[in-house]
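re: that chain from earlier
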Amino acid sequence: MTELIDKTMLMDGDAIRRALTRISHEIVEKNKGIEDLVLVGIRTRGVPIAERIADEIEKIEGKRPLVGVLDITLYRDDLSTMAYQPVLKSTQIPGDISGKTVVLTDDVLYTGRTIRAALDALIDMGRPHIIQLAVLIDRGHRELPIRADYVGKNVPTSAHETISVELNELDGDEKVMLKEIKS
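^ sequence. v structure.
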């Protein structure tokens, strides 16, 4: 039986807020504003992260970028190995993304497989001018050549560790924990 044991709190609510504020400023600076910018959150925790970044960008620019929601369930490369029936949730992309700057958002970047699936799903919906990636945590261990353009915190982890992100919108708490996997 596998057990997760809390090891270290990496970020509290204030640290998460500061990281997302910094990422928001970096997005505006790198893209020289928010013209044709669309934020797309990957379900589940990428969605509130996208919303929070959009809120911060609105404070900076006086205009809120469009925010979409992406369900990558059918694009996962491990779908055939799942023992259960996956639950499909809706994808909501605000209009045509062709020619737009799309910033994918997620909580943790690990192997890169989730992002690969998200890229496949996005490309099926149009041809963005550019796709960028914003993540709260980059924990390493890439299996695919994928990197984030915007990172809240880099956290090197071992194979016996995992990252747990809790956000008020979904979990009623606000923290990022490093947990140890005990078998």
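Residues 13-30 form the longest helix (18 residues).
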